[in-house]
Amino acid sequence: VQLVESGGGAVQAGGSLRLSCAASGSTSSIVAMGWYRLAPGKQREWVATINNDNSTEYSMSVMGRFAISRGNVKHTVYLQMNSLKPEDTARYYCNAITSRQGIRDDNWGLGTQVTVSS
Length: 118
Hints:
This protein starts with a strand and ends with a strand. The radius of gyration is 14 Å and the shape is globular. It is mainly beta and about 120 residues long. It is built from no helices and eleven strands. Strands 2, 4, 5, 6, 9, 10 and 11 form a seven-stranded mixed β-sheet that branches. A four-stranded antiparallel β-sheet has the order 1-3-8-7, with no helix packed on it.
């Protein structure tokens, strides 16, 4: 599975951005998609997940501000980010979990940079 992110950029605190992730390849094996982020000097942080049944999960740090959703094109997901804070500054990575014959794998995109200024 190949993942391509887009939509990052620079924004002031309080602003909004929408990230997109398009999956291609063996997409029939995808069971969930989500977003992670990595900020300089910090560990990778899980942000949000959307499962194949469209249930969603969010980290406490973004709950109420971010929303993950699917696009009309299957295996395209979005991350709507509102009320952005400087601490949201990070490189955001799309993740897809695939399951083949009971074996789960993580698939990653190259990431897109989000910079929030105060």
